[in-house]
Amino acid sequence: MTRKRRRLTLIGAAAVVLAIALGLVLFALRDTIVFFNSPSDVISNAVKPGTRLRLGGLVAPGSVVRDNDLDMHFQVTDGNHSIGVAYHGILPDLFREGQGVVAEGTLEPGGSFRADTVLAKHDEKYMPKEVADALKKQGHWKDEYGNPGATAGTAK
To answer: CA–CA separation, 77 vs 59, rounded Å?
Structure first.
């Protein structure tokens, strides 16, 4: 075997090993690659309590309750289903009822959600593409959610 052939064999074997490693990583992460789950996704997939996930949707109007300075309770809805969220901490300045939100945390027994991070939209016209797609899929999309002349999920 010539020196050039040995080098090509070694490079080919390394590429195969890297492809297998990449495949194993993607297989292991297949359920956690999703940016967020809507309340309908959580209910239809029967997510087990204790599962860590991102919950996205709209803050249901009239659902925000402040227990004390840092304890909050609110509902996240996609129009079909709602999930109660408990959060302890400072909320983003743009957090309000009827606006898009993504909460990261764990699902608790009884179907409630304990969030440790809450993300709100970054300006008045923006909605994350995943939230907009979930609303469109559920049939609750309104034109005023997006920028005039722009697609959902894009910022100015």
So the answer is: 6
Residue with tokens 């599962």: 51
Tokens of residue 11, six digits: 């490079």
| 55 closest CA partner among 18, 108, 107, 127 | 107
* Residue in this structure with the two tokens 């990583």, named with its chain if needed: 25
Q: Quick one: tokens of 64?
A: 């925000």
Integer Cα distance of 156 and 137 in angstroms: 24
> Are 26 and 56 part of one and the same domain?
no
pTM: 0.59
In this predicted model, what pLDDT tens digit does every residue of 56-94 receive, in sequence order?
A: 888 888 888 888 778 889 998 888 888 899 999 888 888
> What tokens does 32 get?
């956690």
Domain of residue 99, CATH code:
2.40.50.140
Q: Give yes or no: residues 111 and 137 share one domain.
A: yes
In a domain, 120, yes or no: yes
69 and 5 in one domain?
no
Closest listed residue to residue 36, CA positions, set 90, 105, 92: 105
- 99/96 Cα distance (integer angstroms): 6
**Full domain range(s) for residue 118:** 39-145
Residue 155 lies in a domain: no
